[in-house]
Structure formats: C-alpha cells, structure tokens
Design brief:
With 118 residues, the chain is mainly α. It has one domain (2-115). The protein is 82% helix and 0% strand. Helix 1 (2-26) runs antiparallel to helix 2, helix 2 packs antiparallel against helix 3 (57-71) and helix 4 runs antiparallel to helix 5. The radius of gyration is 15 Å and the shape is globular. The protein starts with a helix and ends with a helix.
Length: 118
C-alpha cells in the first residue's frame, strides 16, 4: 500500500509541477528560472506544514513522500543553475541558487510554524 500512496502522490505532484512551471515560465520575463524557484519554495513551505502536522502515516506518504517529493525538483534546480553559469549569467546563477537555498529553508521553517499555529 505504501508504494501505491507514494505513486499516486508522485504522479499528481509531477503533473502539478509541470503545469504550474509552464504557467509561470510563460508569463515571466525573469532571468532566473522563476517557475522552478517558486515551485521549490512553495514545496518547502508545504513540506514544513505536512511534517509538523498530525497527519497519519498514509497521508504523510501520499503528501510528503509522493506529492511534494515529485512536485519539488532538485535535479531541475541544479540543471538550471548550472546553465546560468554556462551562459555567463553568474550573478543570476548565484541569486537563483542561494536564494533558493535560503528561502527554501525559511519556507520550511515558516510552514512548520504555520502548522503549529505560530
């Protein structure tokens, strides 16, 4: 049953990431990959909520391991950050990479606080 829950959540998370990422990217003039940036920050925030909630094991498998595991994307983050360096966009690369890390940790912490009722 664990694999089914993670698989269902993962399928929904990856499709959500694809749709939302395209939606944001098509409407953005940003020099950083804004779609992946927003997805990873919101995913960290929601993971903070889920990990600090009283959700049962099955809901945690579905949402945290499945949906949010597929919704956020470390590989795309690395690929896009590396491409910014290759395109001689060093300032944008550093802004994207360090901004993602700092805001990701902050988002996770805020999600935990939000779930705890601050």
């Amino acid at each position: 049953m664990d694999y089914v829950l993670v698989g269902i959540g993962g399928a929904l998370g990856s499709v959500t990431r694809y749709i939302l990422g395209r939606f944001i990217s098509e409407r953005s003039n940003s020099k950083i990959p804004l779609g992946t940036f927003i997805i990873n920050i919101t995913g960290a925030f929601f993971l903070g909520i889920v990990s600090n909630s009283v959700a049962g094991r099955n809901l945690s498998l579905l949402l945290a391991d499945g949906f949010l595991g597929a919704y956020t994307t470390f590989s795309t983050f690395m690929y896009e950050g590396f491409n910014l360096f290759q395109e001689k966009e060093k300032l944008n690369a550093f802004t994207y990479i360090f901004g993602s890390l700092i805001l990701g940790v902050t988002g996770y912490a805020l999600g935990r606080l939000f779930a705890a009722g601050i």
